Amino acid sequence: METFIPRGRITGPILPSFVLRENISPGAKMLYALLCNHASDKDHCWPSHRFLAQELGYCVSSIKNWLGELVRARLLAIRRAAYRSSTYVLLRPRTGAASTASAAPVRRETNFDYPQANFGYRNNSRKNLEKLPPYPPTAERHDGGHGYGPSRKRGGWDFLSANSIFERLWAAYPRKEAKELARSAWHRLWRHGEVPVLDVLLGALDRFRASVSWSKEHGRFVPQLVNWLRGLRWLDEVPEAQASPVGEQATTPEKTEQVQRCMKRLEDQHRADPALEAARPAFEAFLSRFADGQRKRGPAWGLWSLLHRQGKAPHAGEADTAMGILDFLKDWSFRPMKEAAA
Q1: Lowest-confidence range among 243-247, 274-278, 287-291?
Q2: Among 50, 185, 272, 300, which lies 20 to 30 A Cα-Cα from 265?
């Protein structure tokens, strides 16, 4: 059976003895050892929450809770900064100087009767950083070839420049809704270097404005700018078909021929019939017999003229004034069928 001697052969995070005596959770102790490993020969480090979660195999929420425990235990101080990872500063233990937390580079025995091994953060952390190096606060990030990149100013990128370009894009966008949501999406894309130069965006907007989907129904189907940015819609291909004005559609030969045929049918339907015009005095005499005749002149003329074409229109002497004019005309039209049934 092969045995293993840890001294001098262990690499990676080391848990200091004074942390074992702290009244904190095991996860917070593991996180402290990992932060010490990243700090190496410094008193601070700057790994992100996501990076620490990947190394420990836990979620980001657990990392945040454990960081809070370390801060309350006065083992850690957090310096927060906008648009970059926070910096974690390792504080001196409250119980006196411990060799694992001392700023002096010399080796000495701890105050807790645990000998210090001849391996430590200075030797182990450099190998780990070569495999999984965290991004430092001042690291330069690439812009992905879009022409916009984070500047070297504090904060990792130039907020004022990004905001100024967004205002120019907002002024050119046709739909003015949810501006602050669009601004947030714009700055998020800017930080990751995913937006092209402004000329490319304005050119894409010109193509979309001329498309059918953006032109019909007074721009009803134009998306909000926040959705246009989140979906990287400037990369979409705009259909070649262009929206045509209504006047141009009406001047096509097919449209002209259809309109002419429709107008001819309407003229034929509404052309005055000489026979009906000659029978109008008889209708007026019939209409005057009914008390509701003037109020229902239009429907009564329609029914009476239909009966007149059939040669069955009633005269004034045949009117039954006890009924309404429409009820009488309906009853008159069905009278032949009633008589035949009887």
Answers
A1: 243-247
A2: 300
Rounded Cα distance, 331 and 334, in Å? 5
H-helix segments, 147-234: 159-172, 179-191, 198-209, 212-215, 225-230
The CA distance from 156 to 82, in Å, is 9
Contact 60, 49 (CB under 8 A): yes
The CA distance from 44 to 33, in Å, is: 13
Query: How many residues are given for the chain?
Result: 342
| pLDDT, averaged across the chain | 76
Q: Does residue 327 register a pLDDT over 50?
A: yes
CA distance 120 to 170: 55
Q: Alpha-carbon distance 25 to 53, whole Å? A: 16
Question: For the chain, how are helix, strand and coil distributed in percent, rounded to 5?
Answer: 50, 5, 45
Q: How far is CA 308 from CA 178, 233, 276, 278, in A?
A: 66, 67, 8, 11
pLDDT score for 123: 46
Q: What is the rounded CA–CA span in Å between residue 222 and residue 216? A: 9
Interacting residues of 97 by C-beta distance below 8 A, sequence separation 6+ = 111
Tens of pLDDT along 66-109?
999 999 988 899 988 766 778 899 898 875 544 344 433 434 44
Q: How far is C-alpha 282 from the chain's CA centre?
A: 71
